[in-house]
Amino acid sequence: MALFDQGSVHISAKTDYAVRAVVELASAGTPGWLAAPAIADAQHIPLRFLLNILADLRRLGLVDSRRGPSGGWSLSIPAAELSVADVIRAVDGPLTRTITRPVAAEPGSINASVDAMWGAVQIRIRDVLEQISVADLASGSVPTDTTTSAPRQRVGSSRIGSARGSGARVADASEMTG
After folding, report:
1. d(CA 148, CA 145)
2. Three-state DSSP state, 80
3. What sign does the CA torsion over 54, 82, 137, 9 have?
4. Fewest C-beta in 10 Å: which of 11, 133, 153, 161?
5. How many domains does the chain contain in total?
6. What is d(CA 150, CA 148) in angstroms, rounded to the nearest whole number?
7. CATH number, domain with residue 28
8. Which of the 8 DSSP states describes residue 79?
9. Maximum alpha-carbon separation in the chain
10. How far is C-alpha 75 from the chain's CA centre?
11. Quick check: helix, strand or coil at residue 17?
């Protein structure tokens, strides 16, 4: 399920747990290997659900796993280079979707204006999630003003985008606001 589903913002338990798990891994430092039960306990995530999330994140190259007594899970990308948007894309797919209506909104109509406004909201939320890194969350220093800087470069975005095909077409900023 996408962050924007049928015109509303939806943050699934899977998305919330994935962000919490990755932040927990980041707080372990480098090369912090944490056992899944330790992550589950620290973040109050059901273990079986967490294991499925970690498997998704591993498939897309965001985390690594290692067996054995000193094994566990670790970030495979530096936390400062991994955005919250990257984590969400890994478990839920694209952050923005085009708005589809049975009948296309006529240019200049109220429907077109409302659609453009919702598109702009989606893009702004996506941009904020792009600017906040996992390291920001782990350190407790989440930027409060995300209006002045450009979104950070997406880590592995082509990997995540191609691996999580949802069938929906991802809209870019020019499509959503103009």
Report:
1. 7
2. helix
3. negative
4. 153
5. 1
6. 7
7. 1.10.10.10
8. G
9. 64
10. 15
11. helix
One-letter amino acid of 17: Y
Distant-in-sequence, close-in-space partners of 90: CB < 8 Å, separation ≥ 6: 18, 56, 57, 60, 62, 160, 164
The pLDDT > 70 percentage for the chain reads 72
pLDDT of residue 122: 85
Question: Tokens representing 127?
Answer: 């941009």
Helices (runs of H) and strands (runs of E) counted in the chain: 8, 4
Q: Find the domain containing 81 and state its range.
A: 4-177
Q: What are 99's two structure tokens?
A: 């708005």
**Beta carbons within 8 Å of 134's beta carbon, 6+ residues apart:** 22, 23, 26, 75, 79, 80, 82, 83, 84, 87
- Residue in 134, 132, 129, 28 with CA at minimum distance from that of residue 79: 134
Are residues 172 and 161 in contact, defined by beta-carbon separation less than 8 angstroms? no
3-state secondary structure at position 63: strand
Cα–Cα–Cα angle for 94, 78, 156, rounded to 5 degrees: 30
Is residue 131 within 8 A of residue 143, CB to CB? The reply is: yes
| Predicted model pTM | 0.74
At 118-150, the pLDDT tens digits run 888 888 888 999 999 999 999 998 877 765 555
Share the mean pLDDT of the chain.
Answer: 79
